[in-house]
Design goal:
Rossmann fold, alpha/beta, 7-stranded mixed beta sheet, 4 domains, 21% strand, 4-stranded parallel beta sheet, 426 residues, 13 helices
Length: 426
Amino acid sequence: MFDRPQRGEKAILVHLTITHFHDQASVAEFGELARSAGAHIIAHVGGSRSTPDSATFVGSGKLEEIHELVKAHDVEVVLFNHTLTPGQERNIEKALECRVLDRTGLILDIFAQRARSFEGKLQVELAQLQHLSTRLVRGWTHLERQRGGIGLRGPGETQLETDRRLLGERIKYIQKRLEKVSQQRELSRKARQKAELPIVSLVGYTNAGKSTLFNRLTHSAVYVADQLFATLDATSRRIILSNKMQLVLIDTVGFIQQLPHDLVAAFRATLEETKQADLLLHVVDATDPERLQKITQVNQVLKEIGAHDVPQVLIYNKIDGLKDETAHLEHDESGKIHRVWLSAVTGAGLNLLNQTLMTRLYEQQLQIWVRLPLHSQITRAKLFELAVVLQEQFAENGDSLLEIQIQSRDFSQLQKMESELHIISP
C-alpha cells in the first residue's frame, strides 16, 4: 500500500451524471463543500454513465483521465460527489495513488474542522469512526494474515482484528459519554419546561443565514461565515419580545441534501431540541434559485428526526440581495402568518418577525390583571418564577395587583391552586 498523505490541499472534483438529469445545483454545492473543507480545486471531472462501475464507479477510461490530472498537477486528494463503497474507494486509491474521499467523507471532514463544543466533537468523532469501521481493510496488508516469523508471532489476533476491536471499544466509550451529555441536555430541557418558556428553534439549509439571524435576535456573537456548515454546535439564548414575553431561541446545525445517516444518528441528541420546540423558524435563502428544492430537503430531514409535526414559519432571509424586494408578511388560508420576508444583515423585517413570534406563540394567551391577598406569597412567587408578570402594583390593604400574560390552561391550573386569585379591571 502507498502512504496516505495526512491531508489534502490540491483537489480534483469528480461528478458523474448517472441519470438523464444533470444536477447542476449539486455540482455547485459540492464545489462549495470542497472549498469549505480547505481544498484548492485544480479541476472538475464530469461524465455520464447509465450505472456506476461496480469496481471503480467511473470506469477505466475516466479513471485514467483522472490519474493523468493527478500526476500532472501533483494532486493530493480526489473528491467524489457520490457515495462510494469501501471496495470502490480502495480500488480508486490504488489506481490513482492518492487519497480519495466520497461525499460522506468530505462532509465528515468539514464537521471535524467546525466542531467546537465537547458534545459536538464527540458527535463528529462517533460519525467518523462509524464511517471508518466499514473501511478497515488492507490498511495493514503486511499483517493481515496470522502467520509465523520473527516479530509476527502473537496471541492469534490479526492487526485488522485488533483495529476493529479498538475501534468498537472507542465507539462504545463515545456513545456512553454522549448518553451522559444527552441526560444533561434533558435536565436543561426540563428546567426550561418548568419555567414554561416557549422554545423556538432555527432550522434550515446550511448557509441560509440562521446564525446571522440568531445573533440579530439575541445580540450574541455566534460564529458566522459565508461557508457551508459554519455552525455545528447548538446554541440557546433567552430573548424578550416587545410585549415583554420571553422565549428560548436555539440555533442548530444546517441541513444539506444527502446528509450522511451516520451524522444524523450522531447528532440525534442535538436535533432533539428541534423535535421538542414549540415553533420552528425555517430559514430560507431568498436569493437561492433552488430554494424550493432545499425547503423540501430540510423537511425530509425534519421528518426523519420526528420534528415534521412541529408548527413552522418560513423565514425568507437575505432580501437585501433581491432587487425591489421589501420586508413583508404572508398569511395562509386560515389567516396565520406562515412566511416572513426579511434581512438578518440589515435588520429589515425583524419587527415583523417579532410580531410573528408574539402571534404564533401566544395565540392562547391571556393578558389580564389579577389580585392576590397579602398571604398568597407562594402563588405570587410562582407567577414571577414563570416570568409572566408584566407589572405589579399594591392595594391599600397590601394586596398585590399584577398584570400578567399567561397561557389560559396555566391560569386555570393556578386558579385551582389558589382560590383567592381573582381577575380584576386595571
